Every structure is written in structure tokens, then in C-alpha cells.
């Protein structure tokens, strides 16, 4: 018996029927978040109406919607700018962070050298780094991508390295005793076992990615939703700022649930074990 056959072979006890999805649970999983959003909007509208809050301070949901409908093309154009910066920085963090996490998990020496450096970089306020990035790279997209990368890098590395180190030692020893190499043991056992941790890191990072893009746009940009918020604040157009923030929230939620859906497709066994 080889390591491959051990991984692929499934006995009768392993062929469990996948539990049938309850339609009620599906409806609840979608309806409750929607009801939460609707309830928040209703409370927001009621607060602005009951307390007669000046729209200059807190616009009502109607004011925000009106601001969006008056210039939807402009706002969506800025939306795509921020989304592109977010995805590019996030992808860069994944491409660099996961291999570094693998090296950290494989070598205790590398972990002792790299971990303090990661903690130092992560502890520096990113708002303080943003102006320096503008000086170094100008006002283009690159400073925004790097800022997103800096915010996403740490959770991806930590979660991936933790997952790789938490692989049961006896399972790795078992596949090695069956003649598998270190590389085969890694790809057949350690990395699949670490994938739930990796997905946790990715879902954490994707929310931070949107924040990173907006921070960079606050400091130096001529496009993007962060730029719109700064400009609308300068012109006292609070409704436009709220419309931009609503789009940022929508972006973050959609990206998070895209990763959650990807996790269910790639790791159905992890979902069943919860």
C-alpha cells in the first residue's frame, strides 16, 4: 500500500451519505443577514426623522440613495478602481505570503528569524506608512496595491503557518512509513489539512484589503472611493460620502462571501465537520 492509495482509498465506513440540505436552513442563512441590513436601515431612517438630525451631519437613507442615483456612473467608476486595487494587493499577498508560511512551517530557524520581523512590520500603523509609499511610488495604483498587500500579508502568513504546523504528526509519519517523500507528504497530507486555516486567513485578509485600499486613497489619490470620501468631506457633501461608504461595505461583503463560497466548493469535508 502506498501513500497515494491510503489517501484515495475509502472503505465502507468512510462512504457516508452527505446530509441532505434543509431548505429552511438555506432560506434562514440568506434571509437573516438581509433582515439585519433592512433593520439597520429602518433604525437609521427613524433616528434621522425622530431626532431631526441635520443631513449635513447624518444624511437619511433617502438622501444617500438620491446622491447615488444622481451620479451612478461616477460612483461605479470609482468603485471599480478601488476593487481592482483591492484584488491586486490581495492576490500579491497570497502569492508571497503562502510560500513564506510554508518555509516558516518547515524550518524552526526561519520561524525564529522571520516572525519578529513580521510582528514589527505588522505593528507599524499603516496610516503612517501611506505617505511614505506616495513619496516612493507616486500617486498611481502602486502605493494602494502595496498598502493592501501590507495589511493582508500578516493574517495570511500566520494562519497558513499555523495550519501547516497543526497537522497531526502521526499522520505524516504514517504516509512517510509507506514510502512517500517529504514533498508527497506535504501535498497529500499537510497542505490539505491546513486549508481550513488558510481560508480563515484569506477571509480575514480580504476585509482588511478594502480598508488598505481606502487608507492609501485617503493619503494620495485622484480616483477611487476613498478619494471620493475625501473630496465629498471637503465640499460638505455628506450624502455622497455615505454613498461611497455603502459601496465599500457592499464590496467587502461580496468579496468575503465569494471566498466563503469557494471554501464550500474546495473544502466540503471541512464544512461537514463543523
From TrEMBL:
GO terms for biological process: transmembrane transport. It is a multi-pass membrane protein. Keywords: Cell membrane, Membrane, Transmembrane, Transmembrane helix, Transport. Residues 79-263 form the ABC transmembrane type-1 domain. CDD domains: TM_PBP2 (cd06261). Its main location: membrane. It comes from the Bacteria. Pfam families: BPD_transp_1. Residues 8-21 have a biased composition (Basic residues). The chain crosses the membrane at residues 26-53, 86-106, 113-139, 145-164, 200-219, 239-259. It is found in: Cell membrane. Residues 1-23 are annotated as: Disordered. GO terms for cellular component: plasma membrane. Belongs to the binding-protein-dependent transport system permease family. This is NitT/TauT family transport system permease protein. The lineage of its organism: Bacteria, Bacillati, Actinomycetota, Actinomycetes, Streptosporangiales.
